[in-house]
Specification:
Layout (H helix, E strand, L loop, with lengths): L2 H13 L5 H8 L11 H8 L4 H14 L3 H13 L1 H13 L1 H9 L12 H4 L3 H8 L5 H20 L5 H26 L1 H6 E7 L1 H4 L9 E9 L5 H20 L10 E2 L12 E2 L1 H10 L3 H7 L3 E5 L1 H15 L8 H14 L17 H15 L11 H10 L5 H25 L10 H10 L6 H32 L11 H10 L5 H12 L4 H18 L4 H15 L3 H9 L1 H11 L4 H8 L20 H14 L3 H28 L10 H32 L5 E7 L1 H4 L9 E9 L5 H20 L9 E2 L12 E3 H10 L3 H7 L3 E5 L1 H15 L7 H17 L18 H15 L11 H10 L5 H25 L10 H10 L7 H22 L4
Parallel strand pairs: 2-3, 2-4, 7-8, 7-9
Antiparallel strand pairs: 1-2, 1-5, 6-7, 6-10
Helix pairs in contact: 1-2, 2-4, 4-6, 4-7, 5-6, 6-10, 9-11, 10-11, 11-14, 15-17, 18-19, 19-20, 19-23, 20-21, 21-23, 22-23, 23-24, 23-26, 24-25, 25-27, 26-27, 26-28, 26-29, 27-29, 28-29, 29-32, 30-32, 31-32, 31-33, 32-33, 33-35, 33-42, 37-38, 40-41, 41-42, 42-43, 42-44
Length: about 1000
């Protein structure tokens, strides 16, 4: 071969798409291709394949495998002369190394591609049965199956059939194969065949007439006794036949396997009997079946065995399928199953998953099936097991927007085509997009992308998955808007009845009211209504993910009505990704946050993305600065405190919103895993906010009554949860009031001034207004309610020296100055430190007294009728148990262990563990119980809008508490069991550490 010729051929090969032109030249020079190496028709046809190098290599192997020169010449002559064969054969060889292997093993099977008649273009089950008819054993069945598969692949790669027709042909071939396998099993055991009637029901993609090249074939078996046969014996015979049929298809032989037959969709899965009678199937589905099992039955189709029994099975179960949407938590169950599928994908594969990943095939299939189950109850046109047919019917009925349906149809076809071509290459079951450049190039070219196959493939793939991700959830909600929006009748719309059905399925208790809200929000031709129509389909989905979708939608309407004329409101929700979802979570999580928001709807701006810090609670110094500045601008004390309470309301909303978003999680932000961090964040934020509000109120009262200087120094000491930085949303502010007369001021004048300050502060903080009141409780003062409200530092010193009781020392463990004169606060702490951290610790008498007080409190203070095991404060293992245990450790060892000298429960518990006063496991058990009980109290306040120490009894409120704590719909019982379990363990530790049991 001359250098010139080599150069010319080499260039021509590259131009025709060969990547290894040198190897291709050597193959073209092989003796098998001597007669046609210079034929331009051959080179042109090879260049048109997905992988010219692979096609040429496969052709040479096929020629080498021919039994002699005559057979080789026949193949070459037919190849050059007959374009249909040339396109089919080379197309298959360029797309499938596995089918090239088959042709090399069975070199005459190329002849299956020669015929080109109308019936050959669209074969059905009958044609495939004829193709398999000669197979007398499992090995022959595999060869015949591959021969039929060869013709399907040829039509596919040549574009004779589209992806939906190809999937249908693959399902028909599977049907014919199951029948042939069952016939082989029956021939091997004629006695078993005579004893029973056996029907094979195809499920999944086979049942839906949309099978892949390589996929498990899902089946369910139904058996009955033949005439006058014993039922138990008949079922044993049917089970033997079914098992043998499965092995014929699944086992690996010298010709490989066909595909696994999977019967795990049957009642009870792999734990249940392989074959059941029809009555046994019915009993299971009536009593035990889960939502997903009815969803799976959408695709049930009799394919082999006794046809009458198969039809009886489908006819008997079909009514149950179309009642599945009436089950409790139906939509939540389906959506949860979808999320679980995504969560189980290995992280390294999620971005390459065509089937199960976000924006993949399963998203389309789940959305379509969900809509079918909801609306197929009343519309029989939707009852198709084939995804694309069902999607078309949904669009025709107005259940899905036509434009959305077209986009989803295009995306689904493209993604299925990718899946088919990936599997066709090696005939292996996979749904992962390859990473290798050569594989991506072949894949792209097989889909007609020839200019830059890899770049174009990835771009189109990402574009289609993006479409699916965007539409698959909106698909369910958008037509609800079209049903009420009163737009021009461009297309079929969801009827009012269908909209009501869909809202009921989503969990709306009052669908009629929900439709009225949607109509009010989305009707008309204004820009505002247009933006609402864009937002609402997504918002409805987020509302439905809560325990009270009705409240979420109603609250959204109220906020929208209040801010409807504000230009930034809808723009914020439309343009800032997190704002809309955060708002939906907040509005549907309970009463507290929406109530706070309704009092000043402009606070919705806090929910926007901003710099990511909008929902981070602000520190005490920043809050005090703002509140004091607002008080300084006010004309009088009442206006000043009103401004301070307004800041408090806004910051309470910020804290509650952040807590809800962190507890629920969003599409972009996972649920906060550290429950203790959530509790600390809320406790710290509410405590700082309360301290800042008291500081501002004090400034306002003093300035209004006395100018800049009060006749007495004055400080407030935070007690209880306030001093411990552990306030909840509904907590009062426990304080002590301490004063000390200014130099030269009489004690009477100073005391009068201090009492007036306290009285005015408490009055102003409780004036009815749009802002929540702040209750200031001084009952922990010396002598309790019988004692003076305000004392001088000297009076406290005299009292504590002479009269102090052990419970007061215990209460002082939480004492911390929160507002007022810093020096006076510091001296008060110096005064009480020896009381709360007594030298050498508590004596045994004092320890016994604390234990006696605790026991009396447990028996006397629990509300009548309350379940003690579910009382977060006073119940066993609850807040009181943990706190008294920690405080006893502080009283006994605080003098020697500096880490115990803290007002915060969790810090003291950690310090006690570090000091070896209790084991790490015991500390973890107490901490878990305390955090959980605190979270429950916060949840109750968020959900009900009022404080409570027990779980709600109303089912929606209980479900909302569960949702906040991470439990899905229908799992309130699991939540209560977990609470009892956690507190039971804590109580055991308390018995040992506190009571010395």
């Amino acid at each position: 071969m001359t250098p010139g010729r080599r150069s010319s051929t080499f260039t021509r090969l590259l131009r025709h798409g060969f990547t290894d032109a040198s190897a291709a030249e050597r193959l073209l020079d092989s003796p098998e291709l001597a007669a046609v190496r210079d034929d331009p028709v051959l080179l042109e046809a090879l260049g048109a394949t997905a992988d010219p190098d692979l096609a040429l290599h496969g052709l040479v192997r096929l020629l080498e495998a021919q039994p002699g020169p005559t057979a080789r010449r026949e193949l070459l002559d037919t190849l050059i002369a007959a374009k249909p064969l040339r396109d089919r054969l080379l197309g298959v060889l360029g797309a499938s190394a596995a089918l090239a292997d088959h042709l090399a093993r069975h070199p005459r099977d190329w002849e299956a591609l020669v015929t080109y008649e109308p019936r050959d273009l669209h074969p059905g089950v009958a044609e495939f049965e004829r193709g398999l008819a000669g197979a007398a054993d499992p090995v022959a069945l595999r060869v015949a199956y591959r021969r039929c598969l060869l013709s399907i692949a040829a039509r596919d790669v040549c574009g004779t059939t589209d992806v939906a027709q190809t999937a249908a042909e693959l399902a028909d071939l599977a049907t014919a194969t199951l029948r042939a396998a069952l016939a082989l099993a029956e021939a091997a055991a004629p006695e078993d065949a005579a004893a029973c009637r056996l029907a094979v029901i195809a499920m999944g993609k086979c049942g839906g007439h949309e099978l892949n090249y390589v996929s498990d074939v899902d089946v369910i078996f139904v058996g009955e006794a033949a005439d006058h046969a014993d039922e138990s014996k008949a079922l044993r015979s049917a089970t033997k036949l079914a098992s043998h049929m499965m092995r014929i298809c699944s086992e690996t032989t010298v010709e490989g396997s066909i595909w696994p037959v999977d019967a795990n969709l049957r009642p009870e899965g792999r734990n249940g009997p392989l074959v059941r009678t029809l009555s046994s199937h019915l009993a299971y589905y009536q009593r035990w079946a889960k939502t997903w099992e009815f969803q799976a039955l959408l695709k049930a189709r009799p394919v082999a065995g006794d046809p009458d029994l198969g039809q009886e099975y489908v006819a008997a179960l079909e009514p149950m399928v179309w009642k599945a949407a009436e089950r409790d938590n139906f939509v939540a169950d389906v959506q949860k199953m979808r999320r679980r599928v995504v969560e189980n994908i290995p992280a390294a594969e999620v971005d390459r998953e065509l089937k199960l990943g976000p924006g993949g095939l399963r998203d389309v299939e789940f959305a379509v099936q969900l809509l079918q189950l909801v609306h197929g109850r009343t519309d029989a046109t939707l009852r198709s097991g084939t995804t694309l047919d069902a999607l078309q019917a949904l669009a025709a009925g107005g259940y899905v927007g036509r434009a959305d349906a077209v986009q989803l149809d295009d995306a689904y076809r493209f993604l299925r085509s990718m899946e088919h071509r990936i599997q066709l290459y090696r005939l292996r079951r996979t749904h992962l997009v390859p990473e290798d450049e050569a594989d991506l190039r072949r894949l792209g070219r097989s889909l007609g992308l020839r200019t830059e196959p890899v770049t174009e493939l990835i771009r189109e793939w990402k574009q289609h998955t993006g479409v699916v991700r965007r539409l698959h959830e909106k698909l369910f909600y958008r037509p609800l808007l079209d049903a009420v929006a009163q737009l021009a009748p461009v297309e079929a719309r969801l009827s009012a009845e269908a909209a009501r059905e869909r809202l009921e399925a989503l969990g709306y208790a009052d669908p009629a009211a929900a439709l009225r809200h949607l109509e009010a929000l989305a009707s008309g031709v204004t820009r505002k209504a247009a933006i609402q129509r864009t937002l609402l389909p997504v918002l409805l989905g987020w509302f439905a993910d809560s325990a009270d979708p009705d409240a979420g939608l109603l609250n959204f309407r109220k906020v929208s009505d209040a801010l409807g004329k504000t230009p930034w409101y809808l723009r914020l929700l439309r343009d800032e990704g997190a704002a809309a979802e955060n708002l939906a979570r907040v509005l549907s999580a309970g009463r507290l946050a929406p109530d706070l928001l309704m009092r000043a709807p402009e606070a919705v701006a806090l929910l926007g993305d901003g710099d990511g810090d909008n929902l981070v609670p602000r520190g005490r110094a920043q809050l005090e600065q703002e509140i004091l500045a607002a008080v300084g601008r006010a004309d009088n004390a009442e206006d000043g405190v009103r401004a301070a309470r307004g800041v408090r309301r806004r910051e309470l909303f910020r804290t509650a919103a952040a807590d809800i978003v962190d507890s629920y999680g969003t599409d972009t932000k996972p649920v906060e895993a550290d429950q203790g961090a959530l509790v600390d964040r809320v406790g710290g934020a509410v405590s700082d906010l309360t301290a800042a509000t008291l500081a501002g109120t004090l400034r306002a009262v003093v300035r209004d009554g006395w100018g800049d200087i009060l006749p007495t120094r004055f400080v407030m000491i935070g007690m209880g949860r306030f001093g411990g930085h552990e306030l909840g949303y509904g907590s009062d502010a426990d304080v002590l009031f301490v004063h000390e007369p200014q130099e030269g001021v009489a004690e009477r004048e100073a005391a009068d001034a201090a009492n007036k300050v306290v009285a005015e502060m408490r009055r102003l903080l409780q004036i009815p207004s749009a802002d929540p009141p702040l209750l200031v409780d001084a009952d922990l003062r010396p002598e309790g309610k019988s004692g003076p409200l305000v004392r001088t530092l000297k009076s406290y010193e005299a009292y504590y020296r002479r009269w102090s009781l052990v419970w007061e020392s215990q209460a002082l463990l939480r004492a911390e100055p929160v507002a007022g004169d810093e020096d006076l606060g510091r001296r008060f702490i110096e005064l009480v430190d020896p009381l709360r951290y007594p030298a050498e610790g508590l004596g045994e008498d004092a320890v016994r007294e604390i234990r006696r007080l605790k026991a009396r409190m447990e028996s006397e203070r629990l509300p009548r009728g309350a379940d003690p095991k579910l009382h977060t404060k006073l119940g066993p293992g609850g807040l009181s148990d943990v706190e008294w245990t920690v405080q006893l450790l502080q009283l006994r060892h605080g003098w020697a262990e500096p880490g115990l000298r803290t007002t915060r429960t969790r810090q003291a518990l950690a310090a006690a563990c570090a000091a070896g006063l209790l084991g790490a496991e015991e500390a973890a058990i107490l901490d878990e119980a305390w955090v959980l009980a605190t979270r429950v109290r916060n949840a109750v306040m968020l959900v009900r809008g009022r404080a409570g120490d027990t779980f709600p009894t109303e089912s929606r409120e209980l479900a909302a508490v569960g949702r906040y704590l991470g439990y899905g719909d229908g799992h309130a019982g699991d939540m209560l069991d977990a609470y009892r379990r956690t507190t039971r363990r804590a109580r055991a530790v308390v018995e040992e550490l506190f009571y010395g049991a």
